[in-house]
């Protein structure tokens, strides 16, 4: 198979492997060829495991829902015996010990793991430019950021290095890079695809969930069904829980285009969300502009203090020698967050907790009336490469990150599902996603809506030109 051939989506690969039209190893061979050929120009993949993939294939992959599908993993998920750096110089030599249950579920359906993708240090940035591994370049235009923190995964899928890549999302980290790279990025409801991580306050559930970045809606919906079914202890139900059809009812959609911080929104994002609102109306849905149902600027500030305090809390758990090494080796951005949070009073942190709890309660009530919330993904991105590099002066960088991350954190705090859908391209042929969210547990509604949008405004034919020479 020629290296230039664009990898089909995961569903197509698995169907052809199960039917005997492809050897189980052919998709992996193609993916590794494309990584060797194309990755040096974009630095999306930081580790590859061809020998392990070969061994997995020799042992025989299950002819399940992901039979023979090559998959890349964000370097925030643990894999036994493989580097588990989380984008940090502090952890460059650390190896994974256990296999995450999410990986076990994907492997049981026949997925073949090829390696790790790039991520900012500890997933703490809206770009992917770690000092440990260097920046990931956007396949659409290499002077632009891919977003973060699942930026390596988004760039890899956009460039066709693999049809599907793992990501995680604690404040927009799947949806941001999906928007920057023109792929589909879905954040599941908290607790549906895996266990929750502990936090510094028992009243606050974890904001972080794991899922994938894909070209097609059906690939994402399939991965969700596999993870959701496995987490329920019923892995055999995945094929029945897999959402495959578009929405067949009229939805009530609330449009909010004002960033949480109440400041300016980039024209490209405004155009994207307005066009999406028009498309939804053409499809028969009701769309109405609304305001945030809570004090949005206060919540926005609270989220960033909560985010920083998580770094500080982890640092406080270290021994004195470990803390000294942490301070010496982590990036200026990470250390700046920890120091920022160390100055927050107990009263301020209680206010942060209350703001988060209030926002979650208000969104539960909001979605009792409105099926879907439509917003932009960000206020300013895609950013120029280096604009949010981790060694930019901390106070200036914090202000800029706060301005950019202006919509997505809400669903991490509320636990509700949300997605970035690649519906808009600028006049410069650069992708910009639009953001849609639903009530807690209504992941299936979002997938059904995504299928409808994908059919009405297809995006799968779009490819970054330099990664698709002579594609069939």
Short précis:
This protein is of the alpha/beta class. The protein has helices at 10-18, 26-42, 50-59, 101-108, 151-158, 175-181, 217-231, 238-241, 267-282, 296-316, 320-329, 332-342, 346-369, 394-404, 409-414, 443-456, and strands at residues 45-48, 70-74, 112-117, 164-169, 184-187, 209-214, 252-255, 286-289, 372-376, 418-425, 431-438. It is globular and about 60 Å long.
- CATH top level class name: Alpha Beta
Following the backbone from N to C, one meets helices and strands in this order, namely HHEHEHEHEHEEHHEHEHHHHEHHEEH
CATH superfamily: Amidase signature (AS) domain
Main beta sheet: strand number and arrangement?
11 strands, mixed
Structural class: alpha/beta
Indicate the CATH topology: Amidase signature (AS) enzymes
Rg is 21 Å
Number of domains: 1
In which range does the helix fraction lie?
A: 40-55%
Provide a descriptive summary of the structure in words.
- This protein starts with 9 loop residues before the first helix and ends in a 16-residue tail after the last helix.
- The protein has one domain: Amidase signature (AS) domain (Amidase signature (AS) enzymes, Alpha-Beta Complex).
- A hairpin with a 5-residue loop joins strand 10 (418-425) and strand 11 (431-438).
- It has helices at residues 10-18, 26-42, 50-59, 101-108, 151-158, 175-181, 217-231, 238-241, 267-282, 296-316, 320-329, 332-342, 346-369, 394-404, 409-414, 443-456, and strands spanning 45-48, 70-74, 112-117, 164-169, 184-187, 209-214, 252-255, 286-289, 372-376, 418-425, 431-438.
- Strands 1-3-2-4-6-5-10-11-9-7-8 form an 11-stranded mixed beta sheet, sandwiched between helices.
- By secondary structure, it is an alpha/beta fold.
- It has 16 helices and 11 strands.
- Helix 10 crosses helix 12 and helix 10 (296-316) packs across helix 13 (346-369).
- 40% of the residues lie in helices and 13% in strands.
- 55% of the residues are buried.
């Amino acid at each position: 198979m020629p290296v230039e051939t664009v990898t089909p989506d995961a569903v197509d690969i698995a169907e052809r492997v199960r039917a005997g039209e492809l050897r189980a190893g052919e998709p992996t061979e193609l993916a590794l060829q494309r990584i060797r050929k194309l990755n040096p120009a974009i630095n999306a993949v930081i580790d590859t495991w061809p020998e392990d993939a070969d061994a997995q294939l020799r042992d025989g992959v299950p002819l399940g829902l992901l039979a023979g599908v090559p998959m890349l993993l964000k370097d925030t998920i643990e894999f036994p015996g493989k580097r588990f750096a989380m984008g940090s110089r502090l952890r460059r030599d650390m190896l994974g010990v256990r296999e995450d249950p999410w990986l076990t579920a994907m492997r049981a359906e026949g997925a073949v793991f090829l390696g790790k993708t790039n991520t900012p240090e500890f997933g703490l940035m809206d770009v992917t430019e770690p000092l440990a591994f260097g920046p990931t370049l956007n396949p659409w235009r290499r002077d632009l950021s891919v977003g973060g923190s699942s930026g390596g995964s988004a760039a890899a899928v956009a460039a066709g290095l693999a049809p599907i890549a793992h990501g995680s999302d604690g404040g927009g980290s799947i949806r941001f890079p999906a928007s920057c790279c023109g792929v589909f990025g879905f954040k599941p409801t908290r607790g549906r695809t895996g266990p929750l991580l502990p936090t510094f306050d028992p009243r606050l559930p974890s904001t972080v969930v794991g899922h994938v970045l894909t070209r097609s809606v059906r690939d994402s919906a399939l991965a969700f069904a596999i993870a959701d079914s496995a987490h329920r202890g019923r892995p055999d139900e995945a094929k029945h829980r897999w959402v495959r059809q578009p929405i067949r009812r009229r939805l009530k959609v609330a449009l909010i285009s004002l960033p949480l911080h109440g400041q300016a929104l980039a024209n490209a994002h405004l155009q994207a969300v307005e066009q999406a609102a028009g498309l939804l109306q053409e499809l028969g849905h009701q769309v109405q502009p609304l305001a945030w149902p809570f004090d949005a600027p206060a919540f926005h500030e609270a989220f960033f203090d909560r985010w920083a305090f998580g770094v500080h809390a982890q640092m406080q758990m270290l021994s004195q020698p470990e803390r000294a090494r942490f301070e010496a080796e982590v990036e200026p951005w990470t250390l700046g967050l920890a120091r920022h949070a160390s100055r927050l009073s107990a009263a301020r942190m209680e206010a942060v907790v209350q703001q988060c709890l209030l926002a979650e309660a208000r969104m539960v009530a909001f979605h009792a009336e409105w099926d879907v919330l439509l917003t932009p993904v960000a206020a300013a991105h895609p950013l120029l490469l280096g604009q949010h590099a981790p060694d930019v002066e901390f106070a200036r960088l914090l202000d800029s990150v706060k301005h950019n991350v202006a919509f997505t954190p809400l669903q991490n705090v509320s636990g509700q599902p949300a997605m970035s859908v690649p519906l808009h391209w600028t006049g410069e042929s650069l992708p910009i996603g639009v953001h849609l969210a639903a009530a807690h547990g209504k992941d299936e509604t979002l997938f059904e809506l995504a299928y409808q949008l994908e059919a009405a405004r297809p995006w799968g034919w779009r490819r970054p030109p330099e990664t698709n020479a002579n594609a069939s």
